[in-house]
Design goal:
Blueprint: H1 2-20, H2 25-33, H3 49-54, H4 61-82, H5 90-135, H6 140-147, H7 155-169, H8 174-184, H9 188-203, H10 207-231, H11 233-266
Helix pairs in contact: 1-4, 4-5, 5-6, 5-7, 5-10, 7-8, 8-9, 9-10
Length: 267
């Protein structure tokens, strides 16, 4: 078991070093000039590339796969070392390796979902500002072109707006480009807003009605989310109170009462 643990430790350290290495400046410039060939990457992906990009981690899919393998080996090593003190079977070593292998994917999924949710919330602010500009007399396209040049605070939404600004500067249609980039990044609310504005312009209807309808739906969704978050506060506070006061209750009341009853029985 000691030899197995030493082998797993050496493999884990080697994979961690290889996985944490970033591409050199020459390799990055070559990737910009010529896209990487299909044979340079593995066919099986540990996680979807979009999810990995949304997480904000500056690591590609191949290095992430190496990180998952290293994490699995490190977890197996920890369980193997624990077997020196506690007699456990090989099944727990395999279970620990599996848990270590899937842990990075869970972290990346959770981080990507949080960043997407933050981007969707910032779309509501974008709609509010667009409505204010349209009510002030600016055309919807001009107002949106002014807003997409300002950072929103959400990295994913800023990335979409930055790409849209670059394409719009080169002459691409604003609403259609924004809808395409937002749909590509999974920002459905932003894509739906751009598609509604594009449809309103093609049909010749008023865009202010579309903006107000979208603002109302976003406000309702935010209100629902706030109510759901407020409904969970009571349970969390109760859990905190129990964890804070239960040990003191046991030490000051339950244990002295139990000792007193025990002394009464022994007397």
């Amino acid at each position: 078991m000691t030899a197995l643990g030493a082998t797993l430790a050496a493999i884990a350290v080697a994979l961690l070093v290889l996985g944490s290495r970033r591409a050199s400046s020459v390799a990055r410039r070559l990737d910009v000039v010529a896209p990487p060939r299909a044979g340079r990457t593995s066919r099986w992906r540990a996680i979807h590339g979009t999810t990995l990009r949304h997480s904000g981690l500056r690591i590609d899919a191949d290095r992430f796969l190496g990180l998952k393998i290293a994490s699995g080996l490190a977890a197996a090593l920890v369980v193997s070392l624990a077997s020196l003190a506690v007699p456990i079977g090989p099944a727990l070593v395999v279970l620990g390796a599996y848990a270590g292998f899937i842990a990075p994917s869970l972290v990346v999924d959770r981080r990507a979902a949080a960043r997407r949710a933050a981007a969707e919330r910032e779309v509501a602010v974008l709609v509010e500002r667009l409505e204010a500009l349209v009510l002030a007399g600016r055309p919807p396209e001009t107002g949106l072109a002014l807003l997409i040049r300002r950072p929103t605070g959400a990295d994913l939404l800023d990335h979409v707006l930055r790409r849209t600004t670059e394409a719009y500067t080169l002459g691409a249609p604003l609403f259609r480009t924004l809808a395409a980039h937002a749909r590509e990044e999974g920002l459905t609310t932003c894509a739906a807003l751009a598609e509604d504005l594009e449809r309103a312009r093609d049909l010749g209807t008023g865009s202010i009605g579309v903006i107000r309808e979208r603002r109302t739906s976003l406000r309702a969704a935010e209100r629902t989310r706030s109510l759901e978050a407020a409904a969970q506060v009571e349970g969390k506070l109760m859990l905190i109170l129990v964890l804070c006061y239960l040990p003191a209750l046991v030490l000051l009341i339950v244990i002295p009462l139990f000792i007193g009853l025990l002394e009464g029985l022994l007397a």
